[in-house]
Amino acid sequence: MNKILILGHKGMLGDAVFRYFRKNKNFAVITIEERWPGQDFKGKITTLDADLIINCIGKIPQKKPTRYAYKIVNYDLPIFLETLGVPVIHPSTDCEFSGLLEVGKKYSKTDIRDADDEYGKSKALISKMIEDEFLNTKIIRTSIIGHEKVSSNSLLEWFLLQDEEVSGYNNHYWNGITTLEWAKIAEKIILNWDFYTVLNQFSCKECLSKYQVLCLIKKVYKKNIIITPFLTPQTINKCLESDEPLPDLRSQLSDLYEFYKC
């Protein structure tokens, strides 16, 4: 049986990953309460004898961290995990890219990471280092949507809390996946470790505007709310090419809805 350590199990991604792997009898799931970068975290993690680590810890711009916080969590933590000598799955993001790509095109794995904000740069720098230098870590690069336990910073939780008319960006394009789909991909990588390269990129085939994404959530979650399309001055396209075909977003959202309803 594989002993898997899930870091960040109380966050949006970590909660879905923890719930998913906990239901699988082929894995023994462990977590820790100690917080990075404390010495108690470093000491505890070395005693757990995990066969594999799934890192779901990350600083995101919605919580307005400092540049130092981005460095400590998004950059320094993956470097520390690599030194432990066990396989690590690392989450990356479409925010490695600026989003100034022509509409209709998708970012490939060979495109230059051109993010110019602190969050995107922190993710791009460590992703490049992992790809060039690390021996034990594999990257899942995508963008995620999912449920949160302790806040409502994500698009899904924010939308579900609304009870009046909301606006949805009609010129911000996205083709990410749910946190549940991310967990399924992580399992597949674990079971076929040598088959996958260091950098793995996953996304839905269809690029949707954020307005269209909200409309899908409305249908799946049976939310009675008016969504008004809204154009921003700058069109953004962060759609990614995918290494493998995945279910469409509506199917993924339906699965996520049922998964969290249990």
From TrEMBL:
Alphabetical GO biological process terms: dTDP-rhamnose biosynthetic process
EC number of the protein: 1.1.1.133
The RmlD-like substrate binding domain, residue ranges: 3-145
Family listed: Belongs to the dTDP-4-dehydrorhamnose reductase family.
This protein's GO CC annotations: cytosol
Top-level EC class: oxidoreductase
Alphabetic keyword roster: NADP, Oxidoreductase
PANTHER family linked to this entry: DTDP-4-DEHYDRORHAMNOSE REDUCTASE, METHIONINE ADENOSYLTRANSFERASE 2 SUBUNIT BETA
Pathway noted in the entry: Carbohydrate biosynthesis; dTDP-L-rhamnose biosynthesis
InterPro entries linked: dTDP_dehydrorham_reduct, NAD(P)-bd_dom_sf, RmlD-like-bd
Role this protein plays: Catalyzes the reduction of dTDP-6-deoxy-L-lyxo-4-hexulose to yield dTDP-L-rhamnose.
Species whose genome carries this gene: Candidatus Nomurabacteria bacterium CG22_combo_CG10-13_8_21_14_all_32_8
One Pfam family in the UniProt entry: RmlD_sub_bind
GO function terms (MF aspect): dTDP-4-dehydrorhamnose reductase activity
Protein name: dTDP-4-dehydrorhamnose reductase
Coiled coil: none
